[in-house]
Amino acid sequence: MNETCHVEPIHKMVTVEEQPATALIRLGVQGLGCPNCAARVRNGLLALNGVTEAEVDHLTGLAAVEFNPNLVAVPALIQAVAQAGNDGRHRYRAFDLSGALA
Fold first, then answer.
1. Is the predicted pLDDT of residue 3 greater than 60, yes or no?
2. Ordered DSSP codes for 12-26
3. Is residue 45 part of a domain?
4. Is residue 102 in some structural domain?
5. DSSP-derived pairing of the beta strands 23-30 and 93-96
6. Which of 6, 18, 63, 71 could covalently link to 56 via disulfide, CB atoms 3.0 to 4.6 Å apart?
7. How many folded domains does the chain comprise?
8. Average pLDDT in the 80-99 region?
9. What is the CATH number of the domain that holds 55?
10. Is the pLDDT score of 102 beyond 70?
11. Tell me: the pLDDT tens digits for 23-39?
């Protein structure tokens, strides 16, 4: 793990609007090199309004995201993963493994 790659995981307080989270999507994520990469992607997903939980495993390249589909759509989740690597050093790519509607 690279010391210059440190990422603090965020802790999200779920709003009343977000609480009726009824969908779970599984994403394949490419580009995860270490636990900090997973934390960076997790933080990017949790920053979205409508995402209530996100778990990202850098070893398997899998993410499980619980979300309210009335507030956030699958393409926005995939885009958030890509944008998590916006520092010029990291590049992430996600794809839907669950068959959820995009």
1. no
2. PPPPTTT----EEEE
3. yes
4. no
5. antiparallel
6. 63
7. 1
8. 90
9. 3.30.70.100
10. no
11. 999 999 999 999 999 99
Query: Which residue has tokens 């790659």?
Result: 5
Query: What residues have CB less than 8 Å from 46, skipping those under 6 apart?
Result: 10, 12, 54
Residue-level pLDDT at 99: 67
Rounded Cα gap, residues 46 and 38, in angstroms: 12
CA 7 to chain centroid, in Å, comes to 14
Provide the token pair at 77.
């989740």
DSSP codes, the chain? --GGG--PPP-PPPPTTT----EEEEEEEE---SHHHHHHHHHHHHTSTTEEEEEEETTTTEEEEEE-TTT--HHHHHHHHHHTTTTSS---EEEESS----
**Across the beta sheet with 62-67, what order do the strands follow?**
51-57, 62-67, 23-30, 93-96
Name the residue with higher pLDDT: 39 or 5: 39
Q: How many other C-beta atoms lie within 10 A of the C-beta of residue 71? A: 17
- Residue 78: band (very low, low, confident or very high) from pLDDT cuts 50, 70, 90: very high
